[in-house]
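[step 3/7] fold_predict: job queued, chain A
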Amino acid sequence: MYKKLILVTALLAFGVIVLGAYVRLSDAGLGCPDWPGCYGKLSPAHAAEHIAQAEAAQPGGSVSAPKAWKEMVHRYFASTLGLFIVIIGVMAWVKRDKRMQGVGLPTFLIVLVVLQGLLGMWTVTLLLKPVIVTLHLLGGLTTLALLVWLGLRQSRDIPEMRTQDAAGMKTWALTALAVVFIQIALGGWVSSNYAALACADFPACNGAWWPEMDFSHAFHFTRELGKTAQGELLSLASLTAIHWAHRAGALITFLLLAALVFKMLRIPALAKLGGVIGLVLVTQVSLGIANVLFSLPLPVAVAHNGVAALLLLTLVILNFRLTKALKRT
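[step 4/7] structure written:
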């Protein structure tokens, strides 16, 4: 039961991440401009009058009935996720003597999901401040990764491998995991600053390999959405710097993971997982290029977020297997 609950919760966490990307990319993050309800109501249906008034006051703005429903559905799923994680934590404490696995990770997950709830609230109340939106994304991915790690601890079907193979791959796997996490953070910064189309062509950026860029304002983390720290409008050069940094990170990530996959394919116990990582990597790069070439179609953009999460999870699985193999010695 415990193992099944962790699996269901991990799937729910993945769904919440994809839903969050859909809400953000649909410009529905302020569909309900308060928290946790919608104009203080349980659902947009109960707040229909307030939503209609806001839409009439600002047609085509951030508030509308469809956007409100998108935002609230995401909140409903996120709340359910939080409840499931609390149940997992309680079960871990109740059965701690029988499971012999410790309660540290389940307890940390409870703390993390509470923090995620706060970040979700601040995302709305601070009007989509980029640093809060990006941290909310990274918190969601960390929650998913830890749930998968917790689920893997319940499994006894981990393929064995030689200790020397595991030792030789450990540094590569940890580095790849860190690089992918940083690259996802850069992608979140692109999305939260609406910089996905700052470079309108590929592989060059606006017809240049080194376009005009302003990194000083691009990566200032305490500013408001669309503005510099001084309150001025964020320039195209700043948005271009954000986008270009993500592209440069994508190239580094691709080269590192391609080398990792090549090494994994030479180890029988890791060959299948290496093939999966390679497939997910190529898919992710293709989706990123398609976002630029086709001007950020919503299904492709959402898929880009989802596949990023999958790529991270494959590396979590790899690191778990290597850690398990080294602990056997």
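[step 5/7] annotate
The chain has two domains: 1-157, 162-329.
Residues 167 and 326 are 7 Å apart (CA to CA).
exit 0
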